[in-house]
Design a protein that fits this description.
With 232 residues, the protein is an all-alpha fold. The chain has 2 domains: 4-45, no CATH class; 60-227, Hypothetical protein af1432, CATH 1.10.3210.10. The protein contains 13 helices and 2 strands; from the N terminus they run H-E-E-H-H-H-H-H-H-H-H-H-H-H-H. A two-stranded antiparallel ribbon has the order 1-2. A hairpin with a 6-residue loop joins strand 1 and strand 2 (21-23). It comes from Vitrella brassicaformis (strain CCMP3155).
Length: 232
């Protein structure tokens, strides 16, 4: 498919003092790259392109309904979704030191790192799926997203996911730490709010943090847990 989504987005510009943006055909890359006029595309639409955009957004929407497997197995009431997990991760990225990591890149990486779960679900080590098979399934799901979105935007989504999976860049190290820390914090909240004991989430993350910031935050939450009222 042609990469209409990123091309359309390039044509929207901010209006000073307003809360919305307006479409400026003169700025659109579509005007020079496609055989039809931008005004025709905007007025009449192209069903296949619009269908692709809606399908991508529906893929994202599925993550609001995929519950995190670990919380389901632990008997948590109303467990969070994958989308909720990624949202707080992305917000945490705003707190990262800009001298160490590209904060904007980290925000985007947090938002796509579990995107494959729209197709494969939240596979944990307890699900009995070999690591290699899990990786294969997730890569195929992300390739489908890349091809659906198309263009630079589709490739960026795929590349950010792959960089996270490899875990070698400074941004990936931070986001991987955030992924684990968000789970620790969520475990603490569930224990407090639902009077549960969730020791496995602390045991499996002990000593795994790679950055000073999240080693400190992890320890702080554990200290809070030690002094919090326990279940009877």
């Amino acid at each position: 498919m042609s990469p209409v989504l990123p091309l359309l987005l390039s044509a929207f510009v901010s209006i000073p003092g307003c809360q919305h943006r307006h479409f400026n055909p003169a700025r659109s890359q579509l005007a020079s790259s496609l055989p039809w006029r931008v005004s025709d595309l905007v007025r009449m639409g192209r069903k296949e392109e619009l269908d692709s955009i809606i399908k991508f957004l529906q893929i994202c929407g599925k993550l609001k309904r995929v519950k995190r497997t670990g919380w389901v197995r632990a008997g948590v009431e109303q467990p969070e979704s994958v989308a909720e997990h990624m949202y707080r991760m992305a917000m945490a990225c705003f707190l990262l030191p800009t001298a160490t990591a590209d904060r904007n890149k980290c925000v985007k990486m947090a938002l796509v790192h579990d995107l494959a779960e729209w197709s494969v679900g939240d596979i944990t080590p307890f699900c009995g799926v070999p690591k290699e098979e899990k990786s294969r399934r997730e890569k195929a799901a992300m390739a489908e997203v890349r091809d659906l979105v198309g263009g630079d935007a589709g490739q960026e989504i795929f590349d950010l996911w792959l960089e996270y999976e490899m875990g070698t860049s400074e941004e990936a190290r931070f986001v991987r730490d955030i992924d684990k820390f968000e789970m620790v914090l969520q475990a603490f909240e569930y224990e407090t709010e639902q009077k549960l004991e969730l020791p496995s989430f602390y045991d499996t993350t002990r000593g795994v943090f790679k950055t000073d910031l999240f080693r400190s935050l992890d320890q702080h939450v554990r200290d809070m847990r030690d002094t919090a009222p326990r279940t009877s």
